[in-house]
Design goal:
82% of the residues lie in helices and 0% in strands. The protein is built from six helices and no strands. Helix 3 packs across helix 4 and helix 4 runs antiparallel to helix 5. The longest helix is centred in the middle third of the chain and has 28 residues. The chain is elongated.
């Protein structure tokens, strides 16, 4: 239902603004704003993966920066393409807890604690 509403709204916007869209796509693309946005996105995601890595290592779990980036990218992918807001977090929690019997609750808690730290940082600033 969520995707049906989104597609219907997109079709409505495109249908009512067809001439404006044609004018927009006839202009040459502005590369600098796109590159700036990409740099900001890469930096923000990198800092998020680093924050999660530090949190997991502070709890004494065996975890490498490569694991943090790999699982962070997978989580970001699933957060973007799965319906719902926590799809990527569930994938990250499952992946980090998979090889750690006896520490599964702690491993899963790192994902949610990371979200809470990120939310607190967002509210603080």
């Amino acid at each position: 239902l969520k995707y049906a509403v989104a597609v219907a709204l997109l079709a409505f916007v495109v249908g009512t603004n067809w001439t404006g869209l044609r004018d927009l796509f006839s202009r040459p693309p502005q590369v600098l704003p796109v590159l700036t946005a990409a740099a900001v996105m890469v930096t923000a995601n990198g800092l998020q993966y680093l924050r999660w890595y530090v949190l997991v290592r502070a709890l004494g779990l065996p975890f490498t920066p490569r694991d943090a980036v790999r699982l962070g990218l997978v989580g970001t992918f699933y957060s973007v393409f799965l319906p719902g807001a926590i799809g990527g977090d569930l994938v990250k929690a499952f992946s980090v807890a998979k090889g750690r019997p006896g520490m599964r609750a702690t491993a899963v808690a790192t994902v949610f604690a990371d979200r809470l730290v990120g939310l607190f940082s967002l509210i603080l600033y």
